[in-house]
Amino acid sequence: MLVYILRRLLNVVIMLVVVSMVTFGIFFMVPKITGSDPALLYAGRTTDKVAIEGIRKKMGLDKPITTQYGLFLKGVVAGRDYDAGPDTTHCPAPCFGYSFKNEQPVWQDLKDKVPVTLSLASGASILWLLGGVATGVISALRRRTLLDRATMITALAGVSLPIYFTGLVSSAIFVYSLGWLDTINYPDGGLASDPGGWLNAMILPWITLAFLFAATYARLTRATMLEILGEDYIRTARAKGLTESVVIRKHALRSTLTPIITVFGLDLGALLGGAVLTETTFSLPGLGKAAVDAISTGDLPVIMGVTMIAAFFVVMANLVVDLLYAVVDPRVRLT
Amino acid sequence: MTDNSTPQEATSASLQKKPSVPVQSTGPVGVPEQERDRPEAFLAVRDLKVHFPTDDGIVKSVDGLSFNLERGKTLGIVGESGSGKSVTSLAVMGLHRTGQARSRPDISGEIWLDGEELLGSSADHVRKLRGRKMSMIFQDPLSAMHPYYSVGAQIVEAYRQHHDVDKKTARKRAIDMLDRVGIPEPGKRVDAYPHEFSGGMRQRAMIAMSLVNNPELLIADEPTTALDVTVQAQILDLIRDLQKEFGSAVIMITHDLGVVAEMADDLLVMYGGRCVERGTAEEVFYEPRHPYTWGLLTSMPRIDKEETERLVPVKGSPPSLINIPSGCAFNPRCPYADIPKGGITRTTRPELQQVSGNHFSACHMSQEERTRIWTEEIAPKL
Question: What percent of the residues of chain B are helix, what percent strand, and what percent coil, each to the nearest 5?
């Protein structure tokens, strides 16, 4: 078990290093291809050659690429000093560089956005996991009944309807028409400063996002459950005289969880990197929105930062999935 | 029962009647209607039909099967894949009545276990008998055990389902059973998972699980098919020893005549969902009176045979259970189908007819004809 965990952790580190190399490579290459100069982008509109040279030296842009990557990696892990003699700036870890736009450290900008995305993804994922799996199981057990058909059609609608549609329709109904919710406005301090406002801002995004995913999970659960119910060991469980509810809950459901954990890990990881459409639809100041803004303004350091954070979440989610596997399926432990 | 020539108590095993068949009378004075038909045998299956409705038609997996079985006796059910052996055993266990209502087959007939008719009992009542009064060993122990639970946990679950004991007692019982079926270091192995066992050990664990509640009826559905030949004999020995110890009735389902030759008191040969021949093991092995049984015997490899002699397989393939051939189900594959006059083999289904004592077979050929073919043509080749 310990070896298993250590090996997965090593995998995580390797993955993150590879991602950092690729993102850094892009950061280094893009200005070369587009013919722009990062130093110039930092400097702003009114500048002179001396200032640009100064910036270049301070940001380390005059160093060879390997040295620059080394500094970048050090910055992410331990923070780095932008050294220009007396004008030294310290960028604390995790340092993804400075934004072209507001000349703030990227992390300074992003660290307020992470909790937004985190609350969105975790809340929605709990909802869709419970809703989707429960619906899928019921559907599988009532196969080919009216309930099953209705559920699966709803699920199909859920998969097909884009979030900006369901999002807008739901806010139109619950905020503007029925008035059950206040206008969505994410409080600056998040949950800690204004729990009511936070809940008010999160509840519709949660539900619409969960609806989208729950549909997929219901279909996946139903298909897996039906397959598992045909397994020999389910027949054995029944042959032991177990009640049907024990057979389903203890024997069938546990096996059904395996593929769901896999997909869940991937989905959650991807969402933690920014639920772009949801955040945009509901104007939530999360990572996804930050990424979109950074892309539209060409703010490369922010894009890099978001990419690294997203990669970190995806890799960590996969680590958790791998560990969960080992808990659920004893056959995994030795390998 | 479809005709008078096949009496209810047909097999020899039923002749050794147990005097103490517990009779659960449903009324203190009046004898219920069913009481008249209550069979003496421990297990009596009468005219069992299991039909699966499908989009392509009705699959008649079992179509009118009757047999009896006494405590302490072993009945071998032999036949090709798709002859209805496993479906029969699942019907006895009541396992066709579990799961999705829509995929359940239509079952008719009677299944009497220890004086109780099961097909007419509530599903929940049959469930309570499952695993306690009757239990089952499945073919492939790897797929028949849950991969996520330890062997011990699965045995404990089977025990606690029917016994109100705490986990510790049940665990002790599980270790006991593992020891009984010959698993070394049972105290350690009890926490191992099925995939950590070898094939033979897994089947032993499966047997331990089936026997943990001392069932009176044990159904073994091809218990050795997935195992090495060397392990097969050990498992059969084990089942036999345990049967002696517990005095259970055993149904041994197999396509391997070698297995039943070793184990069975009585034999029932199935073809196309029906019984084509039944009798004591000796009768069916040494005096078979059905061309299909002959085919099974001649296709069986024997160590004492000359190397030059080739095995004679049964020609053709098992019949489709949706379109069972009219007349005798075996007629398209039977080398003697043209002997009875008037094409009767293709028009009329033969019923079981007494050969001698409790030996029955279903064939249109006359007794004399079949005796002649067996003694002159088939027996010398074996």
Answer: 40, 20, 40
* Residue A148 Cα, gap to closest chain B Cα (Å): 13
Closest approach of A256 to chain B, Cα-based (Å): 11
A247 interaction partners in chain B (CB closer than 8 Å)? 98
User: From the CA of B190, how many Å to the nearest CA of chain A?
Assistant: 15
What's the predicted TM-score (pTM) here? 0.81
Instruction: Tell me the pLDDT tens digit for each residue of B346-375.
Output: 889 999 999 998 999 999 999 999 999 999
Per-residue pLDDT tens digits for B2-29: 444 444 444 444 444 344 444 444 434 4
Q: Which residues contact B382 (CB under 8 A, 6 or more apart)?
A: B297, B298, B302
| Nearest Cα to Cα of residue B144 among B209, B233, B79 | B209
- The answer to whether residue B140 neighbours chain A at the CB level (below 8 Å) is yes
Q: CA–CA separation, A171 vs A277, rounded Å?
A: 15
Instruction: Give which of A268, A264, A304, A310 is closest to A287, Cα–Cα.
Output: A310
Ranges of beta strands (E only) in B197-316 are: 217-221, 249-254, 266-271, 274-280
Positions of E strands within chain A: 80-82, 89-91
CB atoms within 10 A of CB B63: 21
Contact B95 A238 (CB under 8 A): yes
Quick check: B268 and B77 in contact, CB under 8 A? yes
- CA separation (Å) from A4 to A39, A269, B9, B149? 45, 21, 62, 20
Q: Do B146 and A251 touch (CB under 8 A)?
A: yes
Pairing between β-strand B134-137 and β-strand B217-221 as defined by DSSP bridges: parallel
Tally: H helices and E strands in chain B: 13, 12
Q: What ipTM does the predicted assembly reach?
A: 0.83
